[in-house]
Design brief:
- The protein has about 250 residues and is mainly β.
- Helices cover about 10% and strands about 30% of the residues.
- The strands form three sheets. Strands 1, 2, 3, 4, 12, 13, 14 and 15 form an eight-stranded mixed beta sheet that branches.
- About 15% of the residues have low confidence.
Length: about 250
């Protein structure tokens, strides 16, 4: 169980300011490992976009500074271990400009504050911050609604794109009020997994499972941070990031 191992590793790694997991490479030609029974429809996204083959293809930028990094988030169906269809995957990229001393969490917070269509759930856990999910306003109506049997959230619950929950809240099994929007996350049954691309490159080529919690990951110039969706308790459950499907998030209205 990857996350159980991560929990133990985090306790040890906090002494060294890092959190270790197994790592492996994912290349563009590899496919993901989950079914499309809960298929999402990429065609519902509103706004101009394009494939990202180079960092200069990104349309939506946040921040100022001489360094650049990329935040990439991949939404896909997640209920069994067969590959989803390409049309069921939405993989969006945002650009982030910065000067010095920024972390992966800084980038997420600032991008979410800048793009009103991006929604992020955070909780404090394991001595740091963890991501419990990402939502996206696919039809650009300024609204989002996600809920399960114990919690219901709308855009009004998010401050600058962020909802800071508590570690004891249950974010598994959340569904969307509008099928044109996107959600991925959870914790015990499925969760958002963190991947890092090659450092210092302007092209999205390969990703490795992150060694770091998001608030301990130090950005470098031309770095790539990707998030995708994985289920728990199976070695075949990771949905691989698909750089070949990466698209630029539309610019803000």
């Amino acid at each position: 169980m990857r996350k159980a191992f991560l929990y133990i590793a985090c306790v040890i790694a906090l002494v060294f300011a890092a959190c270790n997991e197994d790592t492996y490479e994912v290349f563009p030609e590899e496919t993901s490992h989950l079914s499309a029974n809960n298929a999402i429809t990429v065609s519902t996204i509103q706004g101009t976009t394009r494939l990202v083959r180079n960092i200069n293809d990104i349309l939506n930028w946040t921040g100022t500074g001489t360094n650049t990094s990329v935040l990439a988030i991949q939404w896909a169906p997640t209920d069994s271990v067969t590959p989803p269809q390409e049309e069921d995957i939405l993989f969006l990229a945002w650009g982030y400009r910065w000067t010095s001393g920024k972390t992966g969490l800084d980038m997420i917070r600032e991008v979410a504050a800048n793009d009103p269509r991006l929604f992020v759930i955070l909780t404090q856990q394991w001595g740091g911050w963890t991501i419990k999910g990402f939502g996206y306003d696919g039809n650009g109506d300024g609204k989002i609604s996600i809920s399960n049997s114990s919690i219901s959230l709308t855009e009004t619950n998010f401050n600058n794109g962020i909802y800071e929950g508590s570690a004891d809240q249950d974010f598994d099994g959340m569904t969307l009020g509008n099928p044109a929007d996107y959600w991925m996350g959870g914790w015990y049954k499925a969760y958002a997994t963190y991947w890092l691309g090659a450092e210092g490159t302007t092209t999205p080529a390969a990703f490795k499972y992150s060694d770091y919690l998001v608030d301990l990951r130090r950005l470098s110039n031309n770095s790539w941070d990707a998030w995708t969706f994985s289920t728990i308790n199976t070695s075949e459950s990771n949905i691989d990031p698909r750089p070949d499907l990466l698209k630029a998030a539309p610019t803000n209205k």
